């Protein structure tokens, strides 16, 4: 990386941290608050959004308007804004709003920076426990109130020794659920309901696999960047890029990734 690029990377990381700080400040007054208003985005089902989601995205967009006004933006709550730099900030102000409503600290703020090739930098931030996971542009580290460290994924080789996470037990369609169960039955431990925090744990070397379906670009681009920087792999269920969302496999290493793909697709 040239000195010029290093300076640019440093600036971009500084902007991303400023956005994460702004989102924290906007969200925390609402977490575990009584009488928090909730809207449902779906007529059939439940996809909640709160005033905290909207306030956090506005806060991040305000930072970009001041510091990087020419960049593009793609946010969950306020959509797309075209830019002229070739860079786009992909924002999920609260990934895991259901967990937020339930009072669990498994939700997080997702910030990704993408170019034409896909995500090149990401932040997974959990405001309530004050942990921030950063990956890309020469960074792979986390920090929180109890310290911090370099992000490095695990070296687990076989599914029989792997820890697998997903958000919903009823993942995807019946066929997708069957694929997930084939992987799950081969794993040592399976846990549910961790939202974006599961991806942070994978990057931090605590777990081995995350498998999900039905994701959007703003759900996965930040985890892609963070996990890749830590040495892991994130693709769709066929092993292709998954920058635009869909069915996701995040793995600590290539051996586990290959094993998970084989089991996911064994029923075809």
Fold and architecture overview:
With about 270 residues, this protein is of the alpha+beta class. The protein folds into 2 domains: about 5-145, 2-Layer Sandwich (Fructose-1,6-Bisphosphatase, Chain A, domain 1), CATH 3.30.540.10; about 160-265, D-Maltodextrin-Binding Protein, domain 2 (3-Layer(aba) Sandwich), CATH 3.40.190. It is about 35% helix and about 30% strand. It contains 7 helices and 15 strands. It has helices spanning about 5-25, 50-65, 95-100, 175-185, 195-205, 215-230, 255-265, and strands at about 40, 50, 70-75, 80, 90-95, 110-115, 120-125, 130-135, 140-145, 145-150, 165, 190, 210-215, 235, 245-250. The chain has an 8-stranded mixed beta sheet, with helices on both faces. Strands 12-11-13-15-14 form a 5-stranded mixed beta sheet, sandwiched between helices. Strands 1-2 form a two-stranded antiparallel ribbon. The chain is globular, with a radius of gyration of 18 Å. The N and C termini lie far apart (about 45 Å). Mean pLDDT is about 95; it is low at about 1-5.
Query: What is the CA-based Rg, rounded?
Result: 18 Å
The strand order across the widest sheet is 4-3-5-6-7-8-9-10
- The CATH superfamily of the largest domain is known as Fructose-1,6-Bisphosphatase, subunit A, domain 1
Number of helices: 7
Can you tell me the residue ranges where pLDDT is under 50 for at least 5 consecutive residues?
A: 1-5
Number of domains: 2
Q: What fold name stands as the CATH topology of the largest domain?
A: Fructose-1,6-Bisphosphatase, Chain A, domain 1
Sheet having the most strands: 8 strands, mixed
User: Mean of the pLDDT scores?
Assistant: 93
Strand content: 25-35%
Morphology call: globular
Q: Name the CATH architecture of the largest domain.
A: 2-Layer Sandwich
Order of helices and strands: HEEHEEEHEEEEEEHEHEHEEH
Helix content: 25-40%
Class derived from helix and strand content? alpha+beta
CATH class of the largest domain: Alpha Beta
Work out the oligomeric state of the chains in this entry: single chain
Organism: Thalassococcus lentus
InterPro entries: His_9_proposed, Inositol_monoP_superfamily, Inositol_monophosphatase-like
Family: Belongs to the inositol monophosphatase superfamily.
Enzyme class: hydrolase
């Amino acid at each position: 990386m040239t000195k010029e690029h290093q300076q640019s990377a440093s600036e971009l990381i500084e902007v991303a941290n400023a956005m994460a700080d702004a989102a924290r400040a906007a969200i925390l007054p609402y977490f575990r608050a009584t009488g928090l208003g909730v809207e449902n985005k779906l007529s059939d089902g439940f996809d909640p959004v709160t005033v905290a989601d909207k306030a956090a995205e506005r806060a991040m967009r305000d930072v970009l308007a001041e510091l990087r006004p020419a960049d593009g933006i793609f946010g969950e709550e306020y959509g797309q804004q075209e830019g002229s730099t070739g860079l786009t900030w992909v924002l999920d102000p609260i990934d895991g709003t259901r967990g937020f409503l339930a009072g669990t600290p498994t939700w997080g703020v997702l910030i990704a920076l993408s170019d034409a090739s896909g995500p090149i930098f990401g932040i997974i931030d959990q405001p309530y426990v004050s942990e921030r996971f950063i990956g890309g542009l020469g960074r792979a580290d986390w920090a929180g109130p109890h310290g911090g460290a370099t992000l490095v994924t695990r070296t687990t080789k076989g599914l029989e020794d792997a820890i697998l996470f997903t958000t919903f037990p009823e993942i995807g369609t019946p066929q997708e659920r069957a694929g997930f169960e084939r992987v799950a039955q081969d794993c040592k431990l399976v846990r549910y309901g961790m939202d974006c925090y599961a991806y942070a744990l994978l990057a931090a070397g605590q777990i081995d696999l995350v498998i999900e379906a039905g994701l959007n670009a703003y759900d996965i681009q930040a985890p892609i960047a963070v996990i890749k920087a830590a040495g892991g792999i994130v693709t769709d269920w066929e092993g292709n890029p998954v920058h635009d969302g869909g069915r996701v496999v995040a793995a600590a290493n290539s051996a586990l990734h290959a094993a998970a793909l084989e089991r996911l697709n064994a029923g075809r």
